[in-house]
Specification:
Layout: E1 2-7, H1 10-19, E2 27-32, E3 42-43, H2 51-60, E4 65-68, H3 71-75, H4 78-83, E5 93-94, H5 98-105, H6 107-116, E6 124-128, H7 132-140, E7 147-150, E8 159-160, H8 165-176, E9 186-190, E10 196-204, E11 209-217, E12 220-222, E13 226-229, E14 234-237, H9 244-264, E15 271-280, E16 283-290, H10 298-301, H11 309-317, E17 332-340, E18 363-366, E19 369-372, E20 375-378, E21 382-390, H12 393-406, E22 412-413
Parallel strand pairs: 1-2, 1-4, 2-3, 4-5
Antiparallel strand pairs: 6-9, 7-8, 7-9, 10-11, 10-15, 11-14, 12-13, 14-17, 15-16, 17-21, 17-22, 18-21, 19-20
This protein binds adenosine monophosphate and glycine.
Length: 429
């Protein structure tokens, strides 16, 4: 089977690495890919949202399946584009149609979905420019901190959590006056949920589902969870504070009604659902849905799957996922992200990366890299993710950190405290 994978980050290198081990794979193409994905298949230099160019490649290379990494092409309707095209409609795309991708593409849509299907989440109201006064009055009824979310995709920056009322009022006015462009045409204001965050990943064919191991992401740039938000600086899977009881609640209260809700709403969803959760005193609440896998969560979740990933995707496409088994490696997986100095603010690219050949007992997934004159150079803010397995969190972290210490480029940076907060749960699991 020939497969086209869309995307260019660490998530896509992890997918490409796993797919390249499949006995069902003939040729793997990655668009646009990076220097890491180039070691697993053939990179093709087209954008993930250039649907006409994707069509040409699919027909030219005899592609039998398309796997979508990032949310952009899904929200822009790549699945719908394929279904509407005579030459493409029989080629399965792993990912939801635009309507399903609204679970991520519109906070207002996803909150309405959760309320309609009685899925536990924070109380909320949605406001527009026209209802600004009502929004300001609603803020008065809440306790700090205040959670304000731009409705549309805002590159992970659309959530603002001011801790006092004057800042919240100012933020609401700015958001509704175009601070986030069209994404802020509507603003969701919601109750602040106190607890510990984790993510659960679901693969579904629209009828049945498989729950993949949970993961914890480290979003802030600085140690001790300080500083600006990033795409993610590291991850650990599974999560020691999400025991069997908690995960059973997640399945019963969240996963089942989500799948049933999609069916009821007539959304044929075939792909991943990434559920961002708050564990509040042992009860799960949904913070957000994403219509794709997470990055860097993929770099810990996918290597932990022992089953053939392409087999699972074929089962999704054929709506026979209930007949598949997902075998999970019982070990812990950790990943540590190496970024360019300055990220998530301004940073430089094109720095030569050395030491990759010294990485032992870990996998160096490329996030933002490219090959230039036979050298691997940085090409993004997040550059490499070092994934390792262990029989304990410490063992996996030691290997991830040994790998990160072996690799260098000018002004590279990584957090030294990934997973350390989880060690205190060790005794109770
Ligand atoms: P989102 O893009 O919706 O995941 O929000 C980004 C981050 O803001 C989340 O990962 C949480 O850390 C935080 N957050 C979002 N909604 C809430 C909430 N209702 N209560 C507490 N924290 C929240
Ligand atoms: N790591 C968070 C995300 O992929 O959205």
């Amino acid at each position: 089977m020939n497969v086209l994978l869309l995307g260019s980050g660490g998530r896509e290198h992890a997918f490409a690495w796993k797919l390249s081990q499949s006995k069902r794979l003939t040729k793997l193409y990655i668009a646009p890919g990076n220097a890491g994905t180039a070691t697993c298949g053939h990179n093709v230099s087209i954008s993930t949202t250039d649907f006409p160019a994707i069509k040409i490649i699919v027909l030219e290379k005899g592609i039998n399946m398309v796997i979508v990494g990032p949310e952009d092409p899904l929200v822009k309707g790549i699945v719908d584009f394929f279904l509407a095209d005579e030459q493409l409609k029989k080629i399965p795309v792993i990912g939801p149609p635009a309507k399903g991708a609204q679970l991520e593409g519109s906070k207002d849509f996803s909150k309405q979905f959760m309320f309609r299907h009685k899925i536990p989440t924070a109380a909320y109201e949605t406001f527009t420019k026209e209802t600004l006064d009502k929004g300001l009055a609603f803020l008065e009824t809440l306790q700090p901190p205040y959670v304000l979310k731009a409705d549309g995709l805002a590159a992970g920056k659309g959530v603002v959590i001011p801790d006092n009322l004057p800042d919240a009022r100012r933020e609401l006015k700015e958001m509704l006056s175009g601070k986030f462009g069209l994404a802020g045409d509507k603003v969701v204001i919601e109750e602040f949920l106190k607890g510990i965050e984790l993510s659960v990943f679901v693969l579904t064919d629209g009828i049945s589902y498989k729950i993949l191991p949970a993961a914890k992401d480290y979003k802030r740039i600085g140690e001790g969870d300080t500083g600006l938000n990033t795409g993610g600086m590291g991850a650990v899977s599974p999560v020691p504070f999400a025991g069997e009881d908690f995960l059973q609640k997640v399945e019963d209260r969240i996963v089942k009604p989500t799948i049933a809700g999609l069916k009821k709403d007539g959304i044929p969803y075939a792909g991943f659902i990434f559920i961002g959760l708050m564990n509040r005193n042992g009860d799960p609440f949904v913070i957000e849905y994403n219509c794709r896998m997470g990055d860097p969560e993929t770099e810990v979740v996918i290597p932990g799957i022992k089953s053939d990933l392409l087999d699972l995707f074929i089962a999704v496409a054929e709506k026979k996922l209930d007949e598949s088994e997902v075998v999970i490696d019982p070990r812990t997986t950790t990943t540590v992200m190496m970024v360019a100095g300055g990220y998530p603010g301004a940073y430089e690219k094109g720095k030569e990366i050395t030491g990759l050949d010294q990485v032992k007992d870990a996998i160096a997934f490329h996030a933002g890299t490219k090959e230039e004159d036979g050298k691997i150079v940085s090409a993004g803010g997040r550059v490499l993710a070092f994934t390792a397995f262990g029989n304990s969190i410490e063992e996996a972290l030691n290997k991830s950190y040994a790998a990160a210490n072996a690799v260098k480029f000018e002004s590279c940076y990584f957090r030294k405290d990934i997973g350390l907060d989880l060690l205190k749960w060790k005794a109770s699991v």
